[in-house]
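job 3f2a | input accepted
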Amino acid sequence: MRNYELMVLLQPDLDETAFGDVTSKVTGWVTDSGGTVEKTVDWGNRRMAYQIHKQRDSHYVLFHINLSPTATMELERNIRFLEPVMRHMLSLAE
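job 3f2a | predicted structure (94 res):
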């Protein structure tokens, strides 16, 4: 098991239920693959450096997770198909 940080940029106009659905899906995928979510940090809406899908702002969410290296590809594939997710990045944590 390794420590990872997963940054997810969501559409800025999501309501609380849609936001909760996305975070619960990501948490579920991590736990289904044998990992754990240590902490979820909601950074809120922030301005991005450049436009994505004609949006200047995004809702940032940071997940601190423990996950097996073999399960990372499946997690990223699942996140890629979530419609509210504009961008994501999974990286090893120190």
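job 3f2a | Residues 16-32 form the longest helix (17 residues).
job 3f2a | closed
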